[in-house]
Amino acid sequence: MTRRALVGAAMVTLVAIAPVAASAAFECPVPAPGAAPAQSQAIKAALPAGDAFADLTKLNAAVASLRSQGIGNAIIIDNLIAAYCPTVADNAALTEAQKREAVRRFAGQITRTVYGLESEDAVILDVPFPPNVIAAINARAAAAKISPEAWVAKAIARDVKVRKRR
User: 116-131: per-residue pLDDT in tens?
Assistant: First the structure.
């Protein structure tokens, strides 16, 4: 094994769909600001007709097309989740909790898809955190002026190094 494979980056998907009370109404997330209007249009145009979200081959092709246009991973993921959510919201057969879980699962799937196309050396961990832990992660990441994902990756790498020395 190469050193690069051993040291490979660990990406942690922080899904912002936190568990809420069962009586809370399901709402779709709004994409974070960051995508230019042209990028948002390109994302919508790249999605194939029909149930694009059920066909991984079509999703891979859409992601590759968006990347070739210079659209970043975070924007692709955020906008694909926002595009997928209404299909779940309109499904009257699902409970509010089932809708939240379906979007959370899709968020993990699309994150693995997007980053999986980038490198074989990266490993993505899809780890749900309770809201109080997410709040603490976000606060510490903001204080360090880095993304929550980068903060978690550094914290884990630091912990692994400490444990290795013991």
Answer: 755 555 566 667 888 8
Q: Is 34 left (phi over 0), alpha (psi -120 to 50) or beta?
A: left
Cα-flanking dihedrals φ and ψ of residue 17, to 5°? -90, 85
Q: Rounded CA gap, 85 and 130, in Å?
A: 21
What tokens does 159 get? 């912990």
Short-list 59, 57, 32, 29, CA closest to 43: 59
Structure-block tokens of residue 155: 């914290």
| The amino acid at 87 | T
List Cβ neighbours of 53 (8 Å cut-off, separation of 6 or more). Answer: 59, 84, 87, 106
Bridge partners, 13 (sequence order): 126
In angstroms and rounded to an integer, the radius of gyration of the C-alpha atoms of the chain is 17
Note the pTM of the prediction, 2 decimals.
0.55
